[in-house]
Amino acid sequence: MYLGTRRVRSAGRASGSIEITLPPELAALEGVDCRILLRDGARPEIVLDPDLAPAVAIFTRVWARLRSLISLTGDIGDFPVQEFEVVVFPSARHNGRPSLAYSQALQVHQRLRGLVSTRSSEALGGIVAPLATVAGVRLGLSGAIATAFGAALAWLAISSGSQRVAGVEGLEHSIALRDWRAVCGPGAPPLGALTPQEDETRAQLALQRIVSQFRRWQEHPDQHELARARWGQVAAGWTAGMTVSTLEDFILDRVTGVTG
Known about the structure:
single chain; three-stranded mixed beta sheet; two-stranded antiparallel ribbon; 8 helices
């Protein structure tokens, strides 16, 4: 992948070193140790070999949190790295497998180290979604239902209470939010993809309820399609001036009966 051209410059005459500014796409490498390799030959190359152990640790940490949160429903086992395509930059799928991006994990790592990372929440969601998708598969979900499950958990993981507005992201997101709030309370914190909840047992009960809903949709696809159809009808009829709570009630009341 071509990322641009940069000019090598002096780092100061006294130091004897040189430096280069890397493209913004590689900003996640800030603070990461890199080995510098020379590949000699007719067209020599200088290669940066980053230490990606912190990124792998983030993948493992988030998977462990999902394993704990879903434990009342079933054991998803240890982090199955072989079930993912691990890439540098985010991409939906590679070779039919969900992808994990090193760059996103490094952004989350930066946030945990206290470094400024303006896209760390988005990056965390990008990690949770594929991990939760595979977790869903291990719980018996498949196809679009597993993907929707992953997306719903990612949304719960990165959204603050004021941001989690039912209806913004779609049926599956809002039903997951409804169940999360029903168990954890209206002002419940985000999912807790990096650290345990203050009330971990309640969070586990909420995830048990959410998984049960997606399993019902898996077993009864006609109910899922009916709920999505009703959702589309309701979304088309949204009225300007609704408050968040009114919008939430308006939507969920009209799909209740096919969402468990």
